């Protein structure tokens, strides 16, 4: 049986929306290394609809694999939890 490991970005007061306004300004090399290690150790991704749509729009355009995660994120299976997603976004 596989493990589900949750990795979330959340502020101390519980805010998870709009990470570009509170997470990105505080990004560090140490944080990047933790994210990279987590992604490279993963076999698949479990995403909500909004995160999936952001990933599907962004990652397929990232072909520079300098940090080792572009190929990994683009090739790993993604499972989407949603009651509103009508059709997965497929690029190819």
Topology diagram in text:
Elements: H1 19-22, H2 29-41, E1 45-48, H3 49-58, H4 70-75, E2 78-81
Parallel strand pairs: 1-2
Structure characterization notes:
- The protein has a domain at 47-83.
- It is mainly α.
- A two-stranded parallel sheet has the order 1-2.
- Helices cover 36% and strands 9% of the residues.
- It has helices at 19-22, 29-41, 49-58, 70-75; strands at 45-48, 78-81.
Quick overview:
The chain is mostly helical and 92 residues long.
Keywords, please?
4 helices; 92 residues; single chain; mainly alpha
The biggest beta sheet is recorded as: 2 strands, parallel
Tally the helices.
4
Number of strands: 2
Distance between the termini: 31 Å
| Integer average pLDDT | 82
**Helix proportion:** 25-40%
Enumerate the spans where pLDDT stays under 50 for 5 or more consecutive residues. none
Helix/sheet category: mainly alpha
Order of SSEs:
HHEHHE
Report the sheet-strand fraction: 5-15%
Shape: globular
From the alpha carbons, calculate the radius of gyration and give it in angstroms.
Answer: 14 Å
Query: Which strand order does the major sheet show?
Result: 1-2
């Amino acid at each position: 049986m596989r493990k589900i490991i949750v990795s979330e970005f959340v502020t101390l007061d519980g805010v998870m929306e709009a990470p570009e306004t509170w997470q990105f300004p505080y990004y560090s090399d140490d944080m990047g290394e933790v994210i990279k290690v987590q992604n490279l150790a993963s076999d698949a991704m479990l995403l909500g609809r909004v995160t999936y749509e952001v990933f599907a729009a962004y990652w397929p355009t990232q072909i520079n694999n300098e940090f080792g995660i572009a190929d990994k994120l683009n090739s790993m299976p993604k499972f989407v939890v949603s009651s509103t997603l009508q059709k997965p976004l497929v690029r190819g």
